[in-house]
Specification:
There is one protein chain. This protein is of the alpha/beta class. The chain contains 6 helices and 9 strands. The chain starts with a strand and ends with a helix. It has one domain (3-211): Formyl transferase, N-terminal domain (Rossmann fold, 3-Layer(aba) Sandwich), CATH 3.40.50. The strands form 2 sheets. Strands 3-2-1-4-5-8-9 form a 7-stranded mixed sheet, covered by helices on one side. The chain has a two-stranded antiparallel ribbon with strand order 6-7. The structure holds 5-O-phosphono-beta-D-ribofuranosylamine (GRF). 5-O-phosphono-beta-D-ribofuranosylamine binds at residues 9, 11-15, 45, 96-97, 117-119, 196, 199. N(1)-(5-phospho-beta-D-ribosyl)glycinamide binds at residues 13-15. One of its GO terms (molecular function) is phosphoribosylglycinamide formyltransferase activity. It catalyses: N(1)-(5-phospho-beta-D-ribosyl)glycinamide + (6R)-10-formyltetrahydrofolate = N(2)-formyl-N(1)-(5-phospho-beta-D-ribosyl)glycinamide + (6S)-5,6,7,8-tetrahydrofolate + H(+).
Length: 213
C-alpha cells in the first residue's frame, strides 16, 4: 500500500523537488506525493507540482484591516486547508518551507502526522540551547529568521532539523538533524543554500524511513 504524502509550502519548493525526484528514482520508500498546497500564489513549488502533474492548490489567507475579524478569518482559512488536505487522506503532511503556524485545532485533525523542516538546530528536550557534537552550547534558534540569526550571533555552526509538529512552535520529537559549519565569508544566501543541501537529503531520508515503518 502506498504511503501518501501532502506537502505544504510557501516558497521555491526545492525540498518538494527533492521528494519528487526521489520518488521518480524509486528512493522514497512507499511514499507517494498526493497533494501540494501553498498559501502564496507565486510560490515556485506550485509550478513544480504542476509540471509533475501532482494535485495542487493555492489557498491564500484572506487579508483584513479589521483586527477583530482576523482570528475568525484565520480559523476559517485553516479549516478550509484541513478539509482540502483531508480529502487526500494523507499518511504524512510535510511542512516544507510553509511560513504559517498551524493551530492545535488543525494538528488535532492529523495526529502524529505533521512534520516540519527547520533551518537551525533544535535540541531533543525543547530547551533553549543545543549542544553540538563537539560539546559547544549554542542557542536553539526558533522563528522565521534563524539563518540571519545564526550569522548575527556569530555562531561557529548551525544546521537543520526535521521534527514532528506539536502545538509548541519549532519544537517536537526530533526525526533528523545535521550540523552545518558557518564559513568566514558566509552571507545569508550562501549559508542557507548549504543548509538546504542537507535539508533536501534529510527530508528524502525521513519520508522514506517513515513510509516503511
Ligand atoms: C527551508 O530552509 C526550510 O527549512 C524553511 O524554508 C526553506 C524551504 O526551502 N522552513 P524550499 O522552498 O524547499 O526551497
Amino acid at each position: 500500500m502506498a504511503y501518501s504524502v501532502a506537502v505544504l509550502l510557501s516558497g521555491s519548493g526545492s525540498n518538494l523537488q527533492a521528494l519528487i525526484d526521489a520518488e521518480a528514482a524509486g528512493k522514497l520508500g512507499k511514499a507517494r506525493i498526493c497533494f501540494v498546497v501553498s498559501d502564496q500564489a507565486e510560490a515556485y513549488g506550485l509550478q513544480r507540482a504542476l509540471v509533475h502533474q501532482i494535485a495542487s492548490a493555492y489557498l491564500p489567507l484572506p487579508r483584513t484591516r479589521n483586527s477583530t475579524e482576523r482570528p475568525a478569518i484565520r480559523a476559517a482559512w485553516e479549516q478550509r486547508l484541513a478539509t482540502m488536505i483531508a480529502a487526500f487522506s494523507p499518511d504524512l503532511i510535510v511542512l516544507a518551507g510553509f511560513m504559517r503556524i498551524l493551530s492545535p485545532r488543525f494538528l488535532d485533525q492529523f495526529p502524529e502526522r505533521v512534520i516540519n523542516q527547520h533551518p537551525a538546530l533544535l535540541p531533543d528536550d525543547g530547551g533553549s540551547h543545543y549542544t553540538t557534537s563537539s560539546g559547544i552550547q549554542i542557542p536553539a534558534l526558533r522563528g522565521a529568521h534563524v539563518v540571519p540569526d545564526a550569522l548575527a550571533h556569530g555562531l561557529p555552526l548551525t544546521g537543520c532539523t526535521i521534527h514532528r509538529v506539536t502545538p509548541r512552535v519549532d519544537d517536537g520529537p526530533i526525526l533528523a538533524r545535521t550540523e552545518v559549519p558557518i564559513l568566514p565569508h558566509d552571507s545569508i544566501e550562501t549559508l542557507h543554500e548549504r543548509i538546504k543541501l542537507e535539508e533536501r537529503r534529510m527530508i528524502v531520508e525521513v519520508v522514506a524511513r517513515l513510509s516503511l515503518l
